Amino acid sequence: MDALMTPDEVSGILRVSKRQVYDLANEGALKSVRVGRAVRFRPADVQAFVDGSAQSSNVVRLKRTGV
Questions:
Q1: Beta strands per DSSP E along 1-67
Q2: What residues contact 24, with CB distance under 8 A and at least 6 apart?
Q3: Is the Cα torsion angle 65, 30, 46, 22 positive or negative in sign?
Q4: pTM score, two decimals?
Q5: Per-residue pLDDT tens for 3-40?
């Protein structure tokens, strides 16, 4: 079982602010787990977010270029 990650750890991986990590979790774009009042993230969910974002970026790029 993988250890859960803190918002600070996720923000370092994604290279965004901790506030952005919380916003992504609140929007449902990044799955999170509540442990009491704390928010934690499964490494697999962070990876899925990265993989999904990469695919979404490719779609947006294709739309912008008209392909």
A1: 33-35, 38-40
A2: 30, 49
A3: positive
A4: 0.76
A5: 999 999 999 999 999 999 999 999 999 999 999 999 99
